[in-house]
């Protein structure tokens, strides 16, 4: 498959202070991530809260700065113009829409800033996009507070579609919604992907959403990708102990998987463990895991774990 977005050895760090008079400390949010996102696929990025998923997403769109590594779009360096072809749907539909603007104004704004369309063309495009996400034209004259959470997320998706992007990052797009509404938004994403051949990076901790939507899945732990492969392969044959633990946390999602229980808490990104970052919680830890960093093993189904150094 053709690669649309390629991320190579990406590092993102923050310098923060602990308390008012505390010493500064380095937060290692993303640690050497290398990943390829293919045209027309939905690649899911999964992991616990705080593992660096959203930071990675924001860095791809130049909303955060990296200290090392590069991001390529269609084999070229991703610049500010990349944002015309890449958009983001944020987690919280209540916070991502300006409450002082009518929906029509919110949707017209990207076109007014980034295109030379006349008013008639802009209004026509706005009407097309709002219908595309299942809402009526009457919605354009209303304010965000007049809509439900699911409707607001539809509006946020419409805004992301205004410039006809090729690539969309959906950051926990249904986690803030009622369960009864989640399926509608998930199906909308799937329909848009298939109809317009869109490429998605789907960020979520919900393995059920991944199983239904994603073509491939990447598992992230403490800023690193520890496993990546086709969704059906990862779910039927998870390799990394962390992946097995994530799958076992969802009732009945993978009955054939042997239980892998985690120990302890997630280490602080300000004080990363030596060796394999997962060794402090791994039920299959070996001595070399505590001091040596594992390579990535495999080709299509890739895992970063010493258990598979013969793949």
Describe this structure as you would to a colleague:
- This protein has helices spanning 53-60, 82-85, 103-114, 119-132, 149-161, 179-196, 207-213, 231-236, 241-248, and strands at residues 3-17, 24-38, 42-46, 68-73, 76-77, 86-89, 167-171, 199-203, 216-221, 224-230, 302-303.
- With 311 residues, it is an alpha/beta fold.
- The strands form 2 sheets. It has a 7-stranded mixed sheet, sandwiched between helices.
- Strand 1 and strand 2 (24-38) form a beta hairpin.
- Helix 4 packs across helix 5 and helix 5 packs parallel to helix 6 (179-196).
- The longest helix has 18 residues, at 179-196.
Radius of gyration: 21 Å
Strand order of the largest sheet: 6-7-8-3-9-10-11
What is the count of DSSP helices, taking H or I runs of 4+ residues? 9
| Molecular shape | globular
Low-pLDDT stretches: none
What structural category characterises the helix and strand content?
alpha/beta
- The succession of helices and strands, N to C, reads EEEHEEHEHHHEHEHEEHHE
Sheet-strand content, in percent, reads 15-25%
In this structure, how is the largest beta sheet organized? 7 strands, mixed
- CATH-scheme architecture: 3-Layer(aba) Sandwich
CATH superfamily: P-loop containing nucleotide triphosphate hydrolases
CATH class: Alpha Beta
DSSP strand count: 11
Mean pLDDT over the full residue set? 90
Give the N-terminus to C-terminus distance in angstroms: 23 Å
**CATH third-tier fold name:** Rossmann fold
| Whole-number count of domains | 1
């Amino acid at each position: 498959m053709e690669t649309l977005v390629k991320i190579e050895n990406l590092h993102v760090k923050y310098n923060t202070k602990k308390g008012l008079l505390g010493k500064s400390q380095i937060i290692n949010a993303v640690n050497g991530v290398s990943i390829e996102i293919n045209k027309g696929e939905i690649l899911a990025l999964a992991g616990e809260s705080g593992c660096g998923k959203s930071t990675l997403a924001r860095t791809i769109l130049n909303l955060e700065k990296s200290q090392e590594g590069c991001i390529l779009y269609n084999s070229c360096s991703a610049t500010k113009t990349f944002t015309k072809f890449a958009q983001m749907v944020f987690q919280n539909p209540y916070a991502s829409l300006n409450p002082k603007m009518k929906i029509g104004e919110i949707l017209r704004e990207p076109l007014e800033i980034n295109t030379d369309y006349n008013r008639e063309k802009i209004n026509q495009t706005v009407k097309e996009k709002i219908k595309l996400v299942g809402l009526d034209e009457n919605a354009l004259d209303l304010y965000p507070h007049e809509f439900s959470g699911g409707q607001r997320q539809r509006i946020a998706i419409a805004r992301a579609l205004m410039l006809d992007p090729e690539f969309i990052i959906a950051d926990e797009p249904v986690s803030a919604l009622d369960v009864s509404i989640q399926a509608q938004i998930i199906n909308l994403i799937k329909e848009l992907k298939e109809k317009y051949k869109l490429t998605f990076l789907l960020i979520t901790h919900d393995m059920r959403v991944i199983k239904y939507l994603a073509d491939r899945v990447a598992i992230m732990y403490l800023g690193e990708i520890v496993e990546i492969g086709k969704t059906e392969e990862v779910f039927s044959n998870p390799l990394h102990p962390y992946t097995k633990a994530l799958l076992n946390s969802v009732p009945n999602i993978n009955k054939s998987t042997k239980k892998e229980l985690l120990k302890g808490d997630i280490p602080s990104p300000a004080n990363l463990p030596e060796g394999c970052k997962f060794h402090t919680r791994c039920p299959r830890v070996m001595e070399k895991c505590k001091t040596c960093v594992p390579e990535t093993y495999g080709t299509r189904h890739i895992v970063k774990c010493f258990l598979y150094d013969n793949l």
